[in-house]
Design a protein that fits this description.
355 residues; OB fold (Dihydrolipoamide Acetyltransferase, E2P); 19 strands; 34% strand
Length: 355
């Protein structure tokens, strides 16, 4: 592993920011530290950088314990949430700053800055000041400045937080491509699950100072290991008292379950395609319809609870108040801190997703 956090603990008074954090990151990976606000993810990033000191445990980079090595000597590039650009320096001067501190020759500085300006697509803007740039352009300058001293590890704290939605989407794609081109091991903090899923090779989910799960975006979405992850990742219906649903007799009454929209199929009784599924379905009423761009999000009242389902725009239109058949073919059962996947027992041998 290239970066390792070994049994890291960190307290701020009575607040536990990190509780026995233990993970490893392979070289060249782009990893997201994902969690809600106040979960401890930024503290973990700052301990890797050397900007915070852990109470116990070891930070290891490239096989070396760096606990006693100051931030400036860890070979790390850091991109701050607010960019932290020098207001009275031009784009060129901001990017060159770290190289000048290292007393790099003027020739090497000019060569490196020119390379980075071209890499981040800011040609022609070298003489501009930060207040003459858009939020996306300032973020690119911050990225280039962090890369200028050729660090072995790049850390980014909420890199897209201060940017509007449209530019944020463009910058996500740009960052992923840049990291792949440079080939540098990178860790970024975010509370936005869409951002983590779209950009990261791997995701580390942090909650209340604890590591909940680590894996690829697909692994975490399809196989959540804890109740927190099953609710935090994706858009889900949380049912606190699940009982009486066909095909789930083994789930005890008053159990708490998570139902994701893709676990639900909604159809009319006269739909020949789904007629074989009628015995396994429930009756429900549409209470809300929301347009989500490429699909409709339906909210249905089924057996006294609200369930969310997605519906393709290509299928026939539906209306609020319309009665539908609702098929649940999977649910996550939450037991203490565990999330277990249950399948509808009436659908054995039936591939619903292939219909």
């Amino acid at each position: 592993m290239y970066v390792e956090m070994k049994h890291i603990n960190k307290n701020f008074g009575d607040f536990e920011a990190a509780k026995d954090i233990d993970f490893g990151i392979e070289q060249g990976k782009l990893v997201a530290l994902l969690g809600p606000s106040g979960s401890g993810k930024t503290t973990i990033l700052r301990m890797i950088a050397g900007l915070e000191t852990q109470d116990s445990g070891d930070v290891v980079i490239e096989g070396e314990v760096v606990n006693d090595i100051p931030a400036g000597k860890r070979g790390i590039g850091f991109v701050f949430q607010n960019y932290a650009l020098f207001r009275y320096m031009t784009v060129w001067e901001n990017i060159a700053f770290g190289l000048r501190v290292k007393k790099t020759s003027k020739k090497e500085i000019n060569k490196r800055v020119k390379e980075l300006v071209q890499l981040v697509g800011l040609e022609g803007m070298e003489k501009r000041y930060p207040d003459q740039l858009s939020g996306g352009q300032r973020q690119r300058v911050a990225f280039a400045r962090a890369l200028a001293p050729s660090p072995q590890l790049l850390l980014l704290d909420e890199p897209f937080a201060a940017i509007d939605a449209k530019v944020r989407k463009e910058l996500r794609d740009w960052l992923k491509k840049m990291i792949a081109k440079v080939g540098i091991t990178s860790i970024f903090v975010t509370h936005d699950q869409d951002e983590a899923v779209e950009v990261a090779d791997e995701i580390i989910i942090i909650n209340e100072g604890k590591l909940e799960q680590m894996g690829t975006p697909v692994e975490i979405y399809k196989r959540p290991k804890t109740s927190f992850v099953s609710q935090f990742i994706g858009t889900s219906s949380v049912i606190d008292s699940f009982a009486g649903f066909k095909g789930f007799d083994e789930i005890k009454e008053n159990s708490q379950v998570i139902i994701r929209p893709e676990f639900v199929e909604v159809f009319k009784s006269d739909n020949e395609k789904f007629k074989s599924l009628l015995p396994a379905s429930e009756e429900g009423v549409i209470t809300e319809i929301s347009f989500r761009g490429s699909y409709l999000e339906l909210t249905l009242e089924v057996n006294g609870v609200s369930i969310t389902a997605n519906r393709s725009l290509e299928r026939r239109s539906v209306e609020i108040g319309e009665r539908m058949h609702v098929l649940l073919y999977r649910v996550y059962l939450l037991e203490e801190d565990d999330a277990r996947l249950y399948k509808n027992s009436l659908l054995k041998g039936v591939d619903v997703e292939a219909l």
